[in-house]
Write a structure and sequence with these properties.
The complex is a heterodimer of chains A (467) and B (337).
Chain A lengths: L4 H40 L2 H34 L2 H35 L6 H30 L4 E4 L2 E4 L2 H5 L4 H30 L3 H36 L1 H8 L5 E2 L3 E8 L4 E8 L2 H7 L5 E2 L15 H29 L7 H10 L2 H17 L2 E3 L3 E2 L10 H38 L27
Antiparallel strand pairs in A: 1-2, 3-6, 4-5, 7-8
Chain B lengths: L8 H29 L5 H9 L5 H18 L1 H10 L1 H23 L4 H28 L3 E2 L2 E2 L9 H25 L2 H32 L1 H8 L3 H5 L1 H18 L5 H21 L2 E3 L3 E2 H4 L3 H28 L12
Antiparallel strand pairs in B: 1-2, 3-4
The chains are: A mainly alpha (467), B mainly alpha (337).
Amino acid sequence: MSLDPVVLSRLQFAWVIAFHFLLPAFTVGLASFIAVLEGLHLATGREIYFRISTFWIKIFAVSFGMGVVSGIVMPFQIGTNWSRFSDAAADVISPLLAYEGLTAFFLEAAFLGVLLFGRNLVPRWAHFVAALMVALGTLFSTFWILATNSWMQTPAGYEIVNGRFLPKDWLQVIFNPSFPYRLAHTVDAVYITTGFVVIGVAASYLRSGRFVDEARTMLSMTLWLLTVLVPLQFFLGDAHGLNTLEHQPAKLAAIEAIWDTHSRVALNLFAIPDEKAETNRYELAIPDLGSLILTHDPNGTVRGLKDWPADERPSPVIVPFFGFRIMVGIALVMLGVVVASLWLRSRGELFDARWFLWLCTLASPLGFVAVLAGWATTEVGRQPWTVYGLLRTADSVSPSLTGFDVAVSFAGYCIVYLVMFSAGFALMVRLIRLGPAEAAIEPDAIESGRPQHPVQALPSTGAGGRP
Amino acid sequence: MSQPVLDFVPIWTLILGVGVFLYVLLDGFDLGVGILYGFAPDRDSRNLVMNSIAPIWDGNETWLVLGGIALMAAFPLAFAIIIPAVYFPVLIMLLALIFRGVAFEFRYRDAEHRTFWDRAFNYGSILGAFAQGVVLGAFIQGFETEGRHFAGGSFDCFTPFSFLTGAALVFGYSLLGAGWLILKTEGTLQDWARTLGRLSLGGVLIGIAAVSLWTPFLKAEIWERWFSWPHIAILAPVPVITALIAYWEWRSLNNRSEAAPFIAAVCLFAMSYLGIAISLWPMIVPYKFTLWEAASSEATQAFLLVGTLFLLPIILMYTGWSYWVFRGKVRGDLGYH
């Protein structure tokens, strides 16, 4: 097989953005969580919030640093590998990216230093403000990057002059048809992702009887939040789906692996889409449910992939089809966790039921899987276009690149990301093992010799939950 | 294109010019600190050297993102031609910056592999600086274009000249880094920074001289610009002032002044920057497209300008505040230690 610069550039972009995406998926929520904890500490003066916050700030520092360096890669990708896309679309999308830098990156960077290192240098309220600004920065960043992404999915407010997109109406560009849905859906998703990490960590402390006070506070407050956010996500996801049906029907057809246009569409629970034969194999479907879910009407008509010429269909269909099912499957598991927590809470057993604590621990990485699955669904579903329906991916790549060039750079990104991300992951696991009490003491992990603070009292064995 | 009512190109040129210069200075000194880091005598001094930039490097690197995106926003044609043309230097720079950036946290938390992360920080800084110098050299040499695209090969940017500018920038950044460390440290560590500063200055001067002698032979346009009358008379002060600043830098590295080495290094960078700007103006894709030809639509430039003029002062204000919080000599008991 000869090296194709378009295919390799797509793979490279998928690789660098998938890894990058894992970090904001975690840090956006974590920044808000830290700001809330700092605020609670400032308002109530309770030391436990301080301990929890200090603990998560350390984990935040590692993940945020990785997010920054993997984020710097992204705008350069657009230039190095997608220069024809840059030339065509820069007039419309680059101000959005620039506003991300101006409103978010500087805010995060300047206040991060104070958040991490400045606790003893500034007044307490100023440290809280720093936490708030970092959290705000992450949300501004989410706003602008999703505005850009949404414009590529559902372009609006532009005119095409000599093959280039020029802006006509900035409000339409920013608030393009899919943007509000994508923003709400994504912000909820990343908050949920962080929430599940927090309850997973708290549950594993409770299981081993360490840091019980901190763990109870974390578990309880986060589960309340998830009780709101997880059910909300079903409504937001449904609304986003209706939006996709209206503006990107080919993507929706690929998500559901529907080939022929008809009414009373069945819901495919499982299938292996066969693009050559334009049909599904091993189909397992529930009659009429597809139309009901997709159009909110059991007689609703849904367009099938055959409505579009083969070179205008998302490919491979299997990615959006299974990506979507993985995402929804995880959402159902998450809903189960929330329901179980409410039931246990009503019986006063939230902190003691070991099966539930195990469930929380096992569920803690699910958010990341769901976020990546959802992202793959929407991005592969956009293909074969970079700007939906208007600019083909094959016509977006830099003309000067050879397959060899991209193979070399792709190999470089693979090696470096594997080293960096595995090292970062191992560090975060170690910080979690150390736990809030030890972490809060500012351990001299490198230079010992300074007196350690008195070791915390032995963790209480609690009312129950220990074998 | 229709006749513009208001010409935003000069102001965007200024913003981009200042933005890139700020990036070169800010990330320049912290990359320079990373370059010198490899020569630090022991672990205590390495801790101090790293702590001197730990709270601010992230903000400094943000200017790189902003510079890239501002180029894309204001002069998209230049972005679409130049960035693919320097495909591999950009790749090397990004990978180097990744290693260097994560080393701050990882070195501190991952004691077993501290030597690995020490090297990652040091080599990452050197490679990142070198790659940026190669980009600069390739930029001065110009790019092969066809229509609105880069038409050369991905390895065209690697030439003896771009390797020279790469090496020169490594010395330039380490001079800035030495200036920063003189500001932030005291005692033997400061003496150490002064010694390395003198060595860096030697490298910088050789680099500036070599690049200056070579550049007019690269392109007839530059020769013409430098040596035709009356340009030669107007431009003559540039090398003279540069030489005076170099002398000032040498003296302040040798006496006890603490701020002068950094300020003089900044002035040296400003003069070099000015020299490049004079040679290439008004080209943004050298010898092919002017700033005006590569500019984005007025609607784009206007929309971004409104926010930029409003936000930049605010950014400078709170960035200044964060520098103020960490003012003074770097201490062992703050940050990673």
